[in-house]
Design a protein that fits this description.
mainly beta; Jelly Rolls; 2 domains; 2 helices
Length: about 280
């Protein structure tokens, strides 16, 4: 091999190595004002697809590719969003501590109609003999999958059901969320997250997510019910859902980029009519 060719190969190797070194790794913990860990916080670059979720102890690791210089956004349904400027983490960090402030939310009083029975606010679309899945490679990404709908009357939510067809993970944790669609923005109507664990040994099951608070869905307003996989406990695999044909949306968090899809998981929202 000529000296010129050896020099070119060496230069190429250095470029590859420098490309790896140019990645920025940000590691840290998310806590509240009392220093308590916050589980399953969505973390991502502003207006970008790079993201992750903090684990059940509030710890996170995010690898940012070369050339990305956006601020880091932190979001959780129970807390105000937080932004970490690029200048703070630009050199990488292994001990970043992010403090989120709790939302101040007033209690909602509702009066259920006399004799009101449990009703389906939004039911199944056209189910098909197949499944759809959400996968993770040791760590879940910061995304969710769901349906948009418009109630015909005011309802207080009783529960949200999700048809889980199976799971490759020995254990994973799913989160359900509800949003109101306001001017193209997704505004949380839940103030407390709802989680359910799914085990490989469970087989097919209808998961039932029950809010601890009064959630009122107003008639003719637009809402979005979603499901996401927030913890895979370091495993690689897929969680499967019964498939349905209806307009569904796949969102990347926390910046909220959205893709419209012709099908997705079966999600059923139920509740009681409000006077």
């Amino acid at each position: 091999m000529s000296g010129k060719n050896r020099a070119l190969l060496l230069a190429a190797a250095l470029l590859v190595a420098c490309g790896g070194w140019a990645q920025t790794v940000v590691e840290g913990d998310v806590v509240n004002g009392r220093g308590e860990s916050i589980e399953y916080v969505s973390i991502g670059l502003e207006a970008d697809s790079v993201g992750t979720i903090s684990d059940e102890k509030g710890h996170f690791v995010l690898t940012i590719p070369e050339g990305k210089q956006a601020d880091l956004l932190f979001s959780h349904v129970s807390y105000l969003p937080e932004r970490i400027p690029y200048d703070v983490y630009r050199g990488g960090c292994d001990s970043l501590v992010v403090v989120l402030k709790e939302k101040v939310v007033g209690l909602t009083e509702v009066v259920v109609g006399r004799g009101s029975r449990l009703k389906t606010i939004v039911g199944k679309g056209i189910t098909v003999p197949g499944v759809v899945g959400m996968s993770g490679k040791g760590r879940p990404d910061s995304s969710e999958w769901g349906i948009a709908f418009q109630p015909m009357r005011d309802h207080v939510v009783s529960d949200v059901q999700v048809d889980v067809a199976g799971c490759d993970y020995l254990k994973c944790t799913l989160s359900m969320n509800l949003y109101e669609l306001v001017g193209g923005e997704f505004v949380n109507v839940l103030t407390k997250p709802i989680y359910q664990n799914v085990y490989q040994s469970d087989g097919r099951q209808m998961l039932d997510f029950v809010p601890e608070e009064n959630i009122v869905l107003k008639r003719k307003r637009k809402y979005f019910a979603s499901i996401s996989c927030v913890d895979t406990y370091g495993q690689t695999g897929v969680v499967y859902f019964q498939a349905q044909v209806r307009t569904c949306y796949f969102r990347h968090l926390p910046q909220g980029t959205t893709r419209k899809l012709p099908g997705g998981p079966v999600i059923v929202v139920r509740g009681y009519e409000v006077i």
